[in-house]
């Protein structure tokens, strides 16, 4: 399973790097790819290591999405870091790469079904409805180290209940 996923990711990565060949980003070295991302994150770019980490279970369940959206997303982070240094993670440089070079929507987060991962979550709410927070974010709220605000209604989120995905 993971060998096939890795091969598909490498093929897609090569195609994405080919799109960079006629641009100012043509000297981008090929990043390594590992299937060791955990939690609810689909992928992560390790900037200093020039590595892309992918969540193997989510990748297996959502191959097309990973190849068409997650890989370009993470590669764009690596390209931006190499050529622009430390800038906003989803700033104008990243958006340019996603939209104009890779021809992908510039979404910051995924909306994949994570219920099958068995990760405990916490339900919070605002005027708009319910929002799931991770254990880490819940603990920040509980320990009064962080306040989360809804992006739509701008109201502070409040805790409702524990949830365990099955």
Q: Please tell me how large the radius of gyration is.
A: 18 Å
The CATH architecture name of the largest domain reads 2-Layer Sandwich
Beta-strand segment tally: 6
CATH superfamily of the largest domain: Metalloproteases ("zincins"), catalytic domain
Which blocks of ≥5 consecutive residues have pLDDT under 50? Answer: none
Total number of helical segments? Answer: 5
Count the domains: 2
Fraction in beta strands: 15-25%
Order of helices and strands: HEEEHHHEEHE
Shape: globular
- C-alpha end-to-end distance: 22 Å
Rounded average pLDDT = 92
CATH topology-level name of the largest domain = Zincin-like
The CATH class designation of the largest domain is Alpha Beta
Largest sheet: 3 strands, mixed
Structural class: alpha+beta
Helix percent band? 25-40%
């Amino acid at each position: 399973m993971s060998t096939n996923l890795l091969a598909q990711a490498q093929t897609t990565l090569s195609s994405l790097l080919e799109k960079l060949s006629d641009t100012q980003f043509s000297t981008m070295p090929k990043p390594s790819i590992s299937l060791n991302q955990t939690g609810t994150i689909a992928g992560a770019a390790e900037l200093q290591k020039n590595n892309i980490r992918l969540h193997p279970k989510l990748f297996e369940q959502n191959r097309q999405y990973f190849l068409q959206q997650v890989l370009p997303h993470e590669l764009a982070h690596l390209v931006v870091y190499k050529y622009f240094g430390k800038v906003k993670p989803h700033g104008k440089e990243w958006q340019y790469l996603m939209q104009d070079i890779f021809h992908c929507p510039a979404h910051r987060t995924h909306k994949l079904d994570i219920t099958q991962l068995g990760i405990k979550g916490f339900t919070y709410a605002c005027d708009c409805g319910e929002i799931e927070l991770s254990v880490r974010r819940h603990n920040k709220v509980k320990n009064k180290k962080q306040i989360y605000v809804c992006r739509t209604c701008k109201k502070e989120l409040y805790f409702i209940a524990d949830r365990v995905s099955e």
